[in-house]
Design brief:
This protein is mostly helical and about 140 residues long. Helix 1 crosses helix 3. About 45% of the residues lie in helices and about 0% in strands. It is built from five helices and no strands.
Length: about 140
């Protein structure tokens, strides 16, 4: 039998992210998923969707999605470089899991800012410039 590690999903009860609201972060995730999985329309993305079953994503797609997100937030804080934990890769099943990872990463960045708080802004231009991963060059 498998032990499924579930993500904390603390945001469901208590939204602590100052820089973005739930809808803002959801929008970022939707943008990234539809960039990598270009046959998926934005209105088809839901947090409860299973990436593999519902969207036929593979591990390359999931890595790409995390890297895109890392790219979008890499300049989020001068104090720390934004790194998305790829060690959780095997645990990502739902769109919500990606949301959870990014939420936790951003919370950590905000906590490290201390008194020098600056709003974290996703860099949509960085996303635009990236080539879709896994596609033939």
């Amino acid at each position: 039998f498998y032990i499924i590690m579930t993500f904390a999903k603390t945001w469901k009860d208590n939204w602590n992210l100052k820089s973005m609201q739930f809808d803002d972060l959801t929008n970022v995730i939707v943008e990234v998923i539809t960039k990598q999985l270009d046959e998926i329309e934005k209105d088809e993305v839901s947090l409860s969707a299973n990436l593999v079953i519902d969207y036929e994503a593979d591990s390359v797609d999931i890595v790409a999605i995390l890297l895109y997100l890392e790219d979008m937030f890499k300049n989020a804080s001068e104090a720390t470089r934004t790194v998305v934990p790829t060690d959780k890769l095997g645990q990502i099943v739902l769109v919500e899991d990606i949301f959870d990872i990014i939420y936790e990463v951003l919370i950590e960045i905000e906590e490290k800012m201390g008194d020098d708080f600056t709003t974290i802004v996703p860099d949509f231009d960085a996303l635009e410039k990236r080539q879709k991963m896994g596609a033939a060059a």
